[in-house]
Amino acid sequence: MTSPISALTGLGLGGGTGAALETGPRKAPETGVCMKTTNLAAWAGIVGAQGGNAMARRESHGPVPAGRNAGRLIVAAAGSAALLAGAVAALSVAPAAASPARASASGSRAVAQAVAGPDNDGPGGFWYGTDSRQVTISGTKAPYAEPVIGGHYGGYIGMAANWANLEDCNKIVVWSATNSSQANQNYALHLGVGTGVYYFMGGPGVDPHYNGTTSEATAWGAAQASYALADTAKLHVTYPVIWMDIELPGGPSDYTPAPDNGWNSVYTAPCSSVVKSDFVAASVDRAEVNGFADYVTSHSSYKVGVYSAPGIWASIFGTGSDASLPNTYEWTYEAFTSSLANPPIGWCLRGSASSTCASFFGGQTSASKYALMWQWSGGGGSDNGVGDFDQIDSNRTP
Questions:
Q1: pTM of the model
Q2: What is the CATH number of the domain that holds 101?
């Protein structure tokens, strides 16, 4: 059994100590650069200036309940997106029926994109997949094909659990039993990676026992990891990495009561949506991440990865040692597109969109062996009318 310290070191998750609590932006002693946005109002202002919508992870971009997109923020450059929600006990979220106007628009777009779609992802070992909300995949038996763009359906990544349900906030879990089954049937034919899971993380600010210390943040991370493993055990998971979904989702929404999930603000109660303090130290945020990672690696055979994007990652963890992820598996949602006409090959879109490429975070690049996935369309306001589309490099599967 790996000791807690060596487990974190191997993952590259052992962050630095960080500065003491303060009420304004911190500066890195060695560089003098601003490390973290600490004020919720300031953060919202940055978001508004960047595009107004929220970093919404795991939204299936078929029709959604009214107001679902209303609070979304796109933090980071003009192409930052997001992800999801939930706790996976029994809720399989199926796509809703489109309104006639929307169905007409998205349907005609899908037809045009299907003509342009490639037969398969590339180079060898790369697969197309989807995540979160259910997408419609035609056929009644394997092998199944990726919707709209073609190629083998190479994987499904769903939400195994949601911090908000650990705290009894009664939010959703975004999971499709149908897409998971289809991905696993293809995997049995040696096509793709099958099913993977992510956990929708709540930061220190939604910890009911928050006291501003790294020790409490570590315990909160471990408690969430225990919950994630328990719900993951109920699923047929074939992919060896559990993803920590770390984002600023906006809201409140049907999957979180906290607009920033408690990473930059402290709330009066986990489910209250009422901010008590507008600062969480980056060192405390990082201690929670380390606590989650250590628990997973100490109590299971799973590896640990992070789902996030460069702009969001920096706004939570700053630019110092707490933000560094030198040896940690990553799944990015930046950059992204609302069009399915030029699906990726390698880590960039094809043809006229070839300047749009995957951008990783925490010091990683697409050349790293730890860069595993890219959510290239469907997240964070990039409504393609179908769902969340991902690229998966199975050559790097740990």
A1: 0.76
A2: 3.20.20.80
